[in-house]
Amino acid sequence: MTRGFSFSLPVMVVVSAIAFVYFCTVFVFIDRWFGLMTSPGIMNAVAYTGVAVMCVLNYVFAIFMDPGRVPSTFLPDIEDSKVPIHEIKRKVLLVGSLTNDSQNDKQQSADSFRILYVISGLLLVPLSMALSGLLGWHIYLILQNKTTIEYHEGVRATWLEERAGNAYKHPYDLGAYDNLTTVLGSNIICWICPTSKHIGNGLRFRTAYDGLPVTSTSK
Questions:
Q1: Closest among 199, 175, 201, 167 to 81, alpha carbons compared
Q2: Alpha carbons 1 and 158: distance in angstroms, whole number
Q3: Fewer CB atoms near the end CB (10 Å): N or C, the chain?
Q4: Helical residues (DSSP H) of 145-163, grouped into ranges
Q5: Nearby residues of 148 by Cβ (< 8 Å), 6 or more positions away
Q6: DSSP 30
Q7: Which residues of 75-99 are buried (b: 16+ CB within 10 A; e: fewer)?
Q8: What distance, in Å, lies between the first and last C-alpha atoms of the chain?
Q9: What is the pLDDT of residues 10-43, one digit of tens each?
Q10: 96-138 tens-digit pLDDT
Q11: CA 107, 110, 114: angle at the middle one, nearest 5?
Q12: Does the keyword Metal-binding apply (predicted)?
């Protein structure tokens, strides 16, 4: 199920920023450094376009995909207490053109590139820092098999168990590899694909206690 379309200012800002960074990178920076018609330029442009397409696809799926709803009959388990600017490379050589005109054009071109570098830097530096921190945080959560809410609940649960003299263990922590396959799927090739399906029905999940023998208290 997908959500309906409606105008959203934050979404438009993000899409505009992605488009600006993409066109500046491909049609200005890569074109200026390598040349789009050269082999290094084509390889860099193709690689960057692939990354941009995956970024846009993930963002589209995040916006339009319905997260689903918990059935009314579901009872949760109770845990045990335990360019715009594109450089136009055309040079019209007119007989009798003045040297000053050429110098002015070079100065304007240099000023345009300076503005582009500044704007791109203001966008990319904080964006890269924020996304790097967010990526590291989500890698940590995946390796622990936790959601953000479970992380904060686990902090309090750990504190309570330590006060009681017990050691707390997150019940859904199956180990690093099993946590990765539980969240991202068993096929490693599909880990970068935003259309990969989830494992299970979304209501019941494996725990670290599944398959362990149940100790009996009867004598």
A1: 167
A2: 38
A3: C
A4: 148-163
A5: 141
A6: I
A7: eeeeeeeeeeeeeeeeeeeeeeeee
A8: 53
A9: 888 888 888 888 888 888 888 888 888 899 999 9
A10: 443 445 556 666 666 777 787 778 778 778 878 888 898 899 9
A11: 135
A12: no
* Domain residue limits, the chain: 1-67+83-92+104-133, 145-209
Residue 2 has phi, psi (to 5 degrees) of: -120, 155
Contacts of 147 (CB under 8 A, 6+ apart): 141
Contact predicate 201/175, CB 8 Å: no
Q: Is the pLDDT of residue 218 over 60?
A: no
**Which residue's entry shows tokens 């991202």?**
184
Amino acid at 63: I
